[in-house]
């Protein structure tokens, strides 16, 4: 019976051992690191992005209104399914804009050149550490109309249809870009819509929207500073 990633890994390990392969990559150390990677790379990132999305919704009620109007009109009070995304362009744009402005992995992950390279006239020696600064793309003033402001229109055309933007790369780019992108996008869509169908997010009593502070806590991942928000039932 294969219930999960760990079962699949252990089954493969066993069959390789039975076939006499004692030196495969399917060993306990790699199993532990893979599980750690899945938790570290796959849980914090999505949870953080969701925190940012709720903070943006509480701070900008005019955008929350539009998301909730679209959700009520298209799916009503039921839970969204993956296939609903194409019919929810405004909601999709809000999630993309959340990822752009939240910029949670600003320096992607450290890479090292495997050989000497000349890139755009710059010589980079083999073995040099390279940090791809995603901030430079996500906040690029030549790409975005209002790079430093939350603006879902960045991802909408004149008819209100969702548009992809090349400069939207919160998962980085190239061969080593995030392998969890499609899973993360699906999770963000399902969790965000689930919450917004059921709740209205507001600042707590006595706090204004303007007082919600978007300054991130700086670390390897940019997280929102701790906030209290109210989740008011809509049903
Ligand atoms: C909002 C969610 C997420 C964001 C913004 C994100 C972003 C990133 C970024 C920027 C990188 C670095 C890519 C590079 O080296 O240039 C990365 C790597 C990685 N991500 Fe994600 N990620 C997310 C969710 C996930 C999920 C859900 C998983 C797995 C379940 C995952 C697994 C990984 C792994 C294993 C790597 C390392 C890949 C490698 O070094 O080859 N991530 N992610």
UniProtKB/TrEMBL annotation:
This is Uncharacterized protein. It is a peripheral membrane protein. Heme binds at residue 178. Keywords: Endoplasmic reticulum, Heme, Iron, Membrane, Metal-binding, Microsome, Monooxygenase, Oxidoreductase. Its main location: endoplasmic reticulum. It comes from the Eukaryota. It is found in: Endoplasmic reticulum membrane; Microsome membrane. Its cofactor is heme. GO terms for cellular component: endoplasmic reticulum membrane. SUPFAM superfamilies: Cytochrome P450. It comes from Pagothenia borchgrevinki (Bald rockcod).
């Amino acid at each position: 019976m294969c219930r999960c990633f760990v079962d699949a890994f252990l089954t493969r390990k066993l069959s390789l051992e039975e076939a006499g392969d004692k030196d495969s990559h399917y060993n306990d150390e790699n199993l532990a690191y893979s599980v750690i990677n899945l938790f570290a790379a796959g849980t914090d990132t999505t949870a953080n992005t969701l925190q940012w999305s709720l903070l943006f919704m509480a701070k900008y009620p005019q955008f929350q209104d539009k998301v909730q109007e679209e959700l009520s009109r298209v799916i009503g009070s039921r839970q969204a399914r993956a296939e609903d995304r194409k019919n929810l362009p405004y909601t999709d744009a809000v999630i993309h804009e959340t990822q752009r402005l939240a910029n949670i992995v600003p320096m992607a992950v450290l890479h090292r050149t495997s050989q000497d390279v000349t890139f755009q006239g710059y010589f980079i020696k083999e073995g040099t550490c390279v940090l791809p600064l995603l901030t430079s793309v996500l906040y690029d003033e030549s790409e975005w109309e209002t790079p430093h402001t939350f603006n879902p229109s960045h991802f909408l055309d004149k008819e209100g249809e969702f548009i992809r933007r090349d400069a939207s790369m919160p998962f980085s780019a190239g061969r080593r870009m995030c392998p969890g992108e499609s899973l993360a996008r699906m999770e963000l869509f399902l969790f965000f819509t689930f919450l917004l169908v059921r709740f209205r997010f507001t600042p707590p009593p006595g706090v204004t929207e303007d007082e919600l502070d978007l300054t991130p806590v700086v670390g390897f991942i940019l997280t929102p500073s701790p906030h209290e928000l109210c989740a008011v039932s809509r049903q």
